[in-house]
Amino acid sequence: MQITPPTWDDLRVLLAVYREQSFLGAAKHLGLSTSTVSRRIDALEGSLRRTLVRRGPDGTTLEPDALPLVNLAEQLELGLDSIQRGPDQSAAAGTVRISMGEGFVRPVTRLLTELRTRHPGLQFELSSEHTFVDLARREADIGIRKAPSTSKVLVQRSVGSLTFALYAASSYVDRKLGAASIRPEDFRRLDFVGHDKTLARLPQSQWLAARGVERWALRSNSDLAIEEAVVGAMGLAMLADAQARALGGLVRVECGEPLPSLPVYLAWHHELSRVERYRTVLRALEPALRAGLR
Predict the structure, then answer these.
(1) How many CB atoms lie under 10 A from the CB of residue 248?
(2) Which CATH class is domain 8-82?
(3) Of 12, 37, 152, 180, which shows the fewest CB atoms inside 10 Å?
(4) Distance from CA of residue 103 to its chain's centroid?
(5) What is the pLDDT of residues 81-100, one digit of tens each?
(6) What average pLDDT does the segment 130-144 reach?
(7) Is residue 167 pLDDT above 80, yes or no?
(8) Residue 253: CB partners within 8 Å, gap ≥ 6?
(9) Start and end residues for every CATH 3.40.190.10 domain found in the chain
């Protein structure tokens, strides 16, 4: 029996299943019914005479034989995207999806606002989250990460480190401390603001827990809430130095203890390096992150 080559329509369905990790998610993404997605995958597997997708109670997984087809689908998608942008291939236009921790949202948004004045054809989608999306599956285009990836399809560059320190509003320092320093025994008696128990694994959360912090004026899974609380003089907070500089009006409080830090990486799917809109955003992001993390 002759093997029928897959069409773009077949490959885009397989690509959607790979990215969404379920038939239901793929169907919603493509605007199709779940049964249609299932039939298309069955037909593709039948034409190639091999299994590509494993169905399970926790979603779908792709067989190794399916990955070259996924890579082909991604290349076709990028090529078609370039054609749809029109004859001026040097123009930076279209949507760029960027994923990052909430602490990066304010400076990155400011940068993108400036960038769009020079490239009005660009549109942006920003995802702020503590559990990062999968760049290899193209759930976002560009990611700002605090841990390196092991994926072979991603390009990643180290852009610096987030260094942390204790900060407080000057009014809190005047009222509670008297000077911008504290002693080890002060951690149990002073008020703090920080992340809640769902983010206990963050290095700043572990650092505070190791020093016996007990008095939590506010705990939250939102960096914005923590920022507002420390600016409003609710208590001390362990903030990234870059984050505190962006807020302004805060005093760095010395404690005589070794402080945590985290490496920061800029990451993207290697195929995106060929597309002008992604190159334009990366050319702006990388130096800005390096400067901000010094």
Answers:
(1) 7
(2) mainly alpha
(3) 152
(4) 11
(5) 656 555 444 567 888 999 98
(6) 77
(7) yes
(8) 165, 166, 167, 168, 173, 177, 180, 181, 182, 236
(9) 85-160+263-292
CATH architecture of residue range(s) 85-160+263-292: 3-Layer(aba) Sandwich (3.40)
- Report pLDDT for 81: 64
Query: Positive or negative, the Cα torsion across 293, 143, 194, 169?
Result: positive
CA 251 to chain centre: 29
Domain with CATH 1.10.10.10 in the chain: 8-82
Q: Give the pairing of strands 94-100 and 142-145.
A: parallel
CATH of domain 161-261: 3.40.190.290
What pLDDT does 82 receive?
Answer: 58
d(CA 239, CA 223): 9
Q: What's the one-letter identity of residue 232?
A: G
Residue 223: pLDDT over 80: yes
Residue from 68, 106, 24, 82 nearest 274 by CA: 82
Query: Coil, helix or strand for 144?
Result: strand
pLDDT of residue 87: 47
